[in-house]
Amino acid sequence: MNHNQTTEETQERATLYALGALSQHEARAFEVHLREGCPVCQAEISQYESVTGELGLAAPAVPPPAYLRELLVARLEREAAPPATAPAGASGTPLPTPVRAPSSVRLYLPWAVAACFAALFAFSYRSIRQIGQEIARQQERLVALQSEGEQLKTTLTQERMRVQQLDQVRSVLTSPGSRVVLLAGQGSAPSASGAVLWDTHRNRWLVTASLPPPPVGKAYQLWFITTAQAKISAGVIRTDVTGQSFTIIDVPSDVSKQVAAAAITLEPEGGSEQPTMPIYVLGRVG
Amino acid sequence: MEEIIRRAAQGDASAIAALYDSTSRLVFGLIVHILGDRFAAEEVLLDVYTQVWCQASSYEQQRGTPLSWLMTMARTRAIDRMRSGKQYQQRKEPLDLAVHQKSGEVGPEEAAAISERRTLVRSALETLSPPQREVIELAYYSGLSHSEIAAHLGQPLGTVKTRARLGMMKLCEMLRPLGREQKARG
Questions:
Q1: Residue A33 sits in a domain of what CATH number?
Q2: Chain A closest-CA separation from residue B80 CA (Å)
Q3: Is B1-85 a CATH 1.10.1740.10 domain?
Q4: pLDDT tens digits, residue range B141-164?
């Protein structure tokens, strides 16, 4: 039954309907009434619905996250085209959910989470790899520094030894009663040379020599040659790879009195009781 | 905006993207306010624009502006979503109009006309008496029925109905010039 004029009752019903505050049963009944063409209620609902349509604007605007737009575009592409027009209900009461409107977020969420983890993993993996590479680089540097340190230590030790040797040479040379016996290269090694600095005070020989590097399994041996031509071993002398030698020998006091010459021969490693090989250098005690 | 809806009705998906760009802040703001849950609001937002896509051809200009059509759709979906929740609890927080006006929140994509309408709607709500505004907000933003509002407020049903009616009539009066203008433009 159509109304003839606006009453408080028609206003109330229309406002509550527009606000969505009628019970379901009341709302359905009112919709039937509207469809029956009551001009009074149609006019009422039209103006109140235009108000409720504006009410939503009072809520504070919130920018949605950017990925939602991507999701929407993807969803629209899937939908391809809007379905054929369905007769609309009242514009204020939208039609039920379209059939193909599953919750995209729900569908995408696991993938999004998985993607996040994958990205996190990839990032961690990259970081760990980078850290690993950095550790390897630092280890290499450390090894290089260590070997450099070792070399410096060796050099320092060598230099210390040389300083000690020079000190000893100096102390012998400055000590009164010292004698120098020059050792000359012989037939088998004319370019070989050497010297014996004889500290007569302490009865000690400082023997320096420049000899060809000894063959493998051979070593140089120093001999005291007495006035009676006896050859007494003074011991094996070591050379470095270039054949340089510096040896300190304590001369037995009984020997020192009868030494007439010094000689260096090449002998089997470990030395011999009597010289077996050629004399490399020889010097007479003057 | 009518043009955008027309393009969407003709199957132009880019029209929906354009509509989204110019209105999603408002629509999302409303949904978030109703649901108070951003994750759920994101789902509803997508559903709203999908629904616009599906129903663009059924939009009737004489029933309201495209924006109010869109906002009504968003409100309905958000309320439906809230009710479908297993242990849904209606939010009954009033709008803080003062704060919103101060912060403005007018995005660059938001046309000056929309901005003007928002300001007007807010000031219209502010002119209501607090009891009238409360009833209208509980119905619109919390989705409560008249009897639920009466129970919530501890007021007789008749009182609630009267407040709703008087409040809505006042809003109608305040917003009428705007509505005419909008329709004239459309």
A1: 1.10.10
A2: 11
A3: yes
A4: 999 999 999 999 999 999 999 999
